[in-house]
Amino acid sequence: MSRGCWGSFNIGSDVTYTWPNTGVTRRYSFDVQHTVLAPDSASKAMMTVNKQYPGPAIEANWGDDAEVRVCNRLTSNGTGIHFQGPRQLNINYADGTVSQTQCALAPGDCHTYRWKATQHGTSSRK
């Protein structure tokens, strides 16, 4: 496997403060809504993302930009989304922690979260 895709980055690079710029934007659209599912064989209304539980994975390469548009399709609750895992450098004003760093999205409202994938590696759901 070639490491040529890393350009001038190597084991000595300070990747805390430098990263590649791929010019690629990974775009996702998430609808938060109630969906009847049966994860434990008993059907019940659950809060889902794109009618999935758990919600869809976000995939990006080191140096990509991520854009995630979140729309609240709930009928009566405000909501938000918090991305556990990716480093969102300098955008803590909108990391999805409702009532802490941003207001909840009212039913029918949407918000687009944007960040650069400044870390490499994998964060997986188990």
From TrEMBL:
It comes from the Eukaryota. It holds the Pfam family Cu-oxidase_3. Gene3D superfamilies: Cupredoxins - blue copper proteins (2.60.40.420). InterPro entries: Cu-oxidase-like_N (IPR011707), Cu-oxidase_fam (IPR045087), Cupredoxin (IPR008972). Keywords: Copper. The keyword Cell cycle does not apply. Residues 32-122 form the Plastocyanin-like domain. One of its GO terms (molecular function) is copper ion binding. The keyword ATP-binding does not apply. Belongs to the multicopper oxidase family. This is Cupredoxin. It comes from Lasiosphaeria miniovina.
